Amino acid sequence: MIDQAVIHPIKEGKFRFTCHNGLPCFTKCCANLNLVLTPYDVLRLKNRLNLSSQTFLDRYTTSFVDEKYGVPVVKLKMNNDETRQCPFVKPEGCVVYEDRPGACRLYPLGQAASMFHGGHQADEYYFIVKEPYCLGLNEEQEWTVPEWLTNQGLDKYNTMNQFFMDITAGRPSKIIKRLNDRQLRMYYMACYCLDDFRNFVFETSFLDKFDIAQDVLNRIKTDETELMAFACQWLKFSLFGEKTFQLAVTELG
Fold first, then answer.
1. What is the C-alpha separation between 45 and 75, in angstroms, rounded?
2. How many degrees, rounded to 5, is the angle at CA 91 between CA 86 and CA 93?
3. What is the distance, to the nearest Å, from the Cα of residue 81 to the centroid of all Cα atoms in its chain?
4. Does the pLDDT of residue 160 top 50, yes or no?
5. pTM as predicted
6. Residue 58's Cα: distance from chain center in Å?
7. Contacts for 182-189 with beta carbons within 8 Å, 24 or more apart?
8. CB atoms near residue 117 (< 10 Å)
9. pLDDT of residue 117
10. Which residues, 6 or more positions from 148, have their beta carbon under 8 angstroms from its beta carbon?
11. Is 102 helix (H, G, I), strand (E, B) or coil?
């Protein structure tokens, strides 16, 4: 959670910010974080580090079922030192910078969404997070929100994260909280442990039960972003009964 005292509106649609190693505060924002990782964050980071999904999750994250939303959440594990620094930050800066999480890319902006009654998402909006130590906000470079999002490479992140958000979007929390342990394990595997999910699709009876087009199979076998989108569609089917998958003819007979 962000301290409400550091949240400020973006006046006239523009803000000033630059981060570089010449600032005394360089990397101070990379410590003592409560950083939730999206499935796409996990995908990018585990590939950057050349690790399997499970090895990355075991080594660098903690997970729990969120009480408010009722689904598994993965957080980055901070170093066990005095400042609780991010494990990917060295004196020279972020060593996974090109594949850093979406929340790191967004900073110094924060994002929220207004909601319709019934839980349906309405408009997203952005605000400035003014940490007292951050000197980058005093720099001269000026940005609009769209300019910043594009500059930080957030377009791809936002596209992939939307697949993930659509699994539970618009569903009453009481329905999500009815998911049993087996279903929660499926959610965790499909979202965060893509290596295991790929094995689930290709090395079990899954393909005997469902009619999956060959071109789809070709894509998800070699492209993990396609596999992630496929996994999100599977969760809509397996957890909530949406008709995103079709049973094979042999299963119907």
1. 13
2. 65
3. 26
4. yes
5. 0.90
6. 17
7. 183/238, 183/239, 184/65, 184/71, 184/72, 186/235, 186/238, 186/239, 187/71, 187/72, 187/235, 187/239, 188/63, 188/72
8. 6
9. 40
10. 15, 17, 109
11. helix
Q: Please give the distance of CA 86 from its chain centroid, rounded to a whole number.
A: 17
Residue type, 99: D
How far apart CA 156 and CA 153 sit, in angstroms, is 7
Cis amide linkage into residue 108, ω under 30° from 0: yes
Structure token pair of residue 32: 């003592």
Q: Which two tokens stand for residue 85?
A: 């620094």
Tokens for 170, please give them: 């618009």
Q: Are 231 and 190 in contact (CB under 8 A)?
A: yes
pLDDT of residue 123: 56
- Is the distance from CB of 244 to CB of 236 less than 8 angstroms? yes
What's the pLDDT band for 251 if we cut at 50, 70, 90?
Answer: low
Strands (E), the chain: 7-8, 14-16, 36-37, 61-65, 72-76, 89-90, 93-94, 109-115, 121-129, 142-144
Kindly state the tokens that stand for 142: 């000026």
- DSSP at 152: T
pLDDT at 74 over 90: yes
Q: Flag whether pLDDT at 252 surpasses 50.
A: no
Place of tokens 């990782």: 37
At 13-59, the pLDDT tens digits run 899 999 999 999 999 999 999 999 999 999 999 999 999 999 999 99
User: Distance between CA 232 and CA 168 in Å, rounded?
Assistant: 10
**Cβ-contact 69, 184 below 8 angstroms:** no
pLDDT of residue 246: 93
**What is the pLDDT at residue 113?**
63
